[in-house]
Amino acid sequence: MQRYKEPAETFSQVYLEDTDKPLPEILNPNTRYVFHSTIAKGGKSIIHAYKDMHLNRVVAYKTLRPEFANDEVENIRLLREARITAMLQHPNTLPIYEIGRDNKGNCYFTMKLVHGYTLREVLNFHERYALRQLITVILQVSHALASAHELGVVHRDIKPENILIGPYREVLLMDWGLAKVWSKQSDKAIQLPESGSAIQAEKSMTGFGKLQGSVCYMSPEQIKRDPAISFSTDIYSLGAVLYEVLTGQPPFDGDQLHEILERVENQEPERPSKVGKFPIPKYLEHLSMKCLKKDPADRPQSVKEIIRALEQFV
User: Which of 144, 146, 171, 190 could serve as a FRET partner for 90 with CA atoms 20 to 30 Å apart?
Assistant: First the structure.
């Protein structure tokens, strides 16, 4: 890949010279994308900003970190994330532009580059935002989840870090790399091996050798690695995010990982009205507590129930 040093400010302006320049007769895929900057680094993958020289726009370019480039499982995860996100085609998910291999044979995919804030960044300044604004974010995430569930996709990693609020107030549910899907040939989901067997003492659980997901938002059945895990796990995680929106803190927290795990599995969270600093509508409190039930059968049976409740408030 080439390195592109043109200032980012020029990317936002549209010029005739860019829109009307001829397309080469033979397109070389190895010179299509020009590096601009690194956006984010995860435990397994990395996201860059690249300029697409064919369409004269800047895109987000996601690929595996070099040490995982030949990891078969991580390549499957990357391709699964790209294809699931592309197949959802929902206003609250990112548009995927292309999937391919670079000149070294490594898989990548490109997607819309959105400059915005994650819900985590917003919640860090929780008191600056009206509850209605935050509930509108949860409502849009709920619509994305409802659509995914109808198509047979479980996200499995709902958390504030994976919810992006864009410059036009669009809300995008990100990172479908841990999603669960089922095979046409049977009612069994296609399971990929976990990256590690040990639960290590960190709250962020998506790095090397760690239980995948974020433990503060994981359902009890996800912590237990229940093979029958289904759509209800997303309802639990969505309820945990709703709880934090209502109170300013997750339903379970602690200094040690084992403390959080024990609380998620065995304790009931405090009612939001006892934790939050501001008045909380009773039916939103009831909704969050219902989503956080230990038994999936006791939770709302579909995300549409959550949508109806949130729409009453919004």
Answer: 190
61: exposed, middle or buried (Cβ count in 10 Å: 0-12, 13-18, 19+) = buried
Q: Which whole number is the average pLDDT over 193-218?
A: 50
Q: What string of DSSP letters covers 244-299?
A: HHHHSS-SS--SSHHHHHHHHHH-PPPPHHHH-SS---HHHHHHHHHHT-SSGGGS
Is residue 241 within 8 A of residue 160, CB to CB? The reply is: yes
The residues assigned a catalytic role are 157
Contact 157, 214 (CB under 8 A): yes
Taking only the tens place, the pLDDT of each residue in 247-263 is 999 999 887 888 888 99
Q: Let me know if 118 is exposed, middle or buried by CB neighbors in 10 A (0-12, 13-18, 19+).
A: middle
Question: 232-245, pLDDT tens digit by residue?
Answer: 999 999 999 999 99
- Going by C-alpha positions, the residue among 28, 40, 19, 39 that lies closest to residue 1 is 28
Query: Do the Cβ atoms of 241 and 284 come closer than 8 Å?
Result: no
What's the whole-model pTM score? 0.87
**190, 183 in Cβ contact below 8 A?**
yes
